[in-house]
Design a protein that fits this description.
This protein has 86 residues and is an alpha+beta fold. The protein has one helix and five strands; from the N terminus they run αβββββ. β2 and β3 form a beta hairpin. The longest helix is centred in the first third of the chain and has 31 residues.
Length: 86
């Protein structure tokens, strides 16, 4: 009887361990698919340019540079072509 209970407990523990490991792997995979890209847009005199549209090519993701020419955009891994429009 004790052996049977230990086997059931071991089986449940293994099942929950596998579930937790699968959830952790999924979480890491989801995080690995998103990245943040940032930078500064300057003119030929190295002065910041405000109001430049920065977008990911072939997507709806976009942002605009601030008064310091700074932009930050979040994109999916693999989408690596930025489009700048003034």
């Amino acid at each position: 009887m004790i052996v049977s209970l230990l086997n059931q407990l071991n089986h449940r523990l293994m099942k929950y361990s596998l579930l937790v490991m699968a959830m952790l792997c999924f979480h890491v995979a989801v995080l690995a698919q998103v990245r943040e890209v940032s930078g500064h847009v300057t003119d030929k005199f190295k002065l910041p340019v405000e109001g430049v549209s920065v977008s990911i090519k072939d997507s709806d993701i976009q942002t605009v540079t601030n008064q310091d020419g700074f932009y930050k955009i979040t994109t999916k891994e693999g989408e690596n072509v930025l489009v700048f429009k003034n």
